[in-house]
Fold this sequence. Notes:
Blueprint: E1 4-5, E2 8-15, H1 20-29, H2 31-34, E3 40-49, E4 58-69, H3 72-81, H4 83-91, E5 94-107, E6 117-118, E7 128-136, H5 141-156, E8 161-170, E9 174-181, H6 184-193, H7 195-207, E10 210-227
Helix pairs in contact: 5-7
Amino acid sequence: MNxxxxxxxxxxxxxxxxxxxxAFKQMGIGYSQxxxxxxxxxxxxxxxxxxxxxxxxxxxxxxxxxxxxxNAAAAVQFKEEHRFIQDYFxxxxxxxLLTLSNIKSQGMWGGQNPFQSPKDLVAGNKKVAxxxxxxxxxxxxxxxxxxxxxASRAIEAAEGVYFYKGIGEWPFxxxxxxxxxxxxxNVLQFAYKSSEHGTIVKETRQKRWYxxxxxxxxxxxxxxxxxx
Length: 228
């Protein structure tokens, strides 16, 4: 998207040693607490895959909340005051918060592209976050999941990546990923010079795995450990 705005994107990562049934339940009932927040333009509650990367096996100890805010003040007010997030502060064993500025976003998520670039995008020497998301075709599920181990190996071997996790709205069908990189140069090196990654991208097009997909690059403005 080319639109410039005061938008702020945040991804909360919650880990649980206790209260896991509560955390799982929030995936179903949490939306009712979020749908009427005026300055929250887009949000998703997300489960995660097992291990450090991507897996068919769910990780019932880790969940995520993705929120796109109209401005920074709204994001801060939510973190400090809203009952939804305060419950997570009480029950989660650790909370990590990534605050992101969109660089470029292509594709659709639920029929829209929620990410806009800020009015004054300053690069500097910042770390980079990549969010991908796709809805899989039912007829292509087996083909896609057969390719996942290769994708995991490719990113594990990539230079400059220091965190990656599979996230998603629905197991097996609606999948997303978050990865964090030391620099944009590392991202471009992986995107354009990794033969394994290139092969998977070609397969994506040839086998038409997705009914909808999105790829977004962000600068990491803040990476905070709020708890734990």
